[in-house]
Amino acid sequence: MAEMLSVETNETKKGLGIHARRALAYIVLVIMSFLCLFWFYILFVNATRSKGELTQGFTLLPSTHLIQNWKGVMAGTLPVVRGMINSLVVATCSAVLCTYFSTMTAYAIHVYDFKLKKFMFTFILAIMT
């Protein structure tokens, strides 16, 4: 009888552990989803603000200039294409430099033997996630 009781207790503990882990996983997923979707909300809020409001600083509340800004984009009075080209140039340069330095780092870690080789590899993998 005592053995049966201990088996049930272990199964109960195991079940609670699974539920706790699942709850923790959902909490982490909700937080990560919020962090990802928050920037789309900020994008929308900034689309509703005028140039003057954009220079005043950060706010979470939308403004009333969405239709005016949309008309400006459609009429061609706002330099959207120039902004896209600037973003493309910056992103391309950033990607090329990042790839270059990452390749050099990977080569050095693979070829050379040094004291903190395993630590550096683990540290770089931790930073990437």
UniProtKB/TrEMBL annotation:
<keyword id="KW-0472">Membrane</keyword>
<dbReference type="InterPro" id="IPR035906">
    <property type="entry name" value="MetI-like_sf"/>
</dbReference>
<keyword id="KW-0812">Transmembrane</keyword>
<keyword id="KW-0813">Transport</keyword>
<dbReference type="GO" id="GO:0005886">
    <property type="term" value="C:plasma membrane"/>
</dbReference>
<protein>
    <submittedName>
        <fullName>Carbohydrate ABC transporter substrate-binding protein</fullName>
    </submittedName>
</protein>
<keyword id="KW-1003">Cell membrane</keyword>
<feature type="transmembrane region" description="Helical">
    <location>
        <begin position="23"/>
        <end position="44"/>
    </location>
</feature>
<feature type="transmembrane region" description="Helical">
    <location>
        <begin position="88"/>
        <end position="112"/>
    </location>
</feature>
<keyword id="KW-1133">Transmembrane helix</keyword>
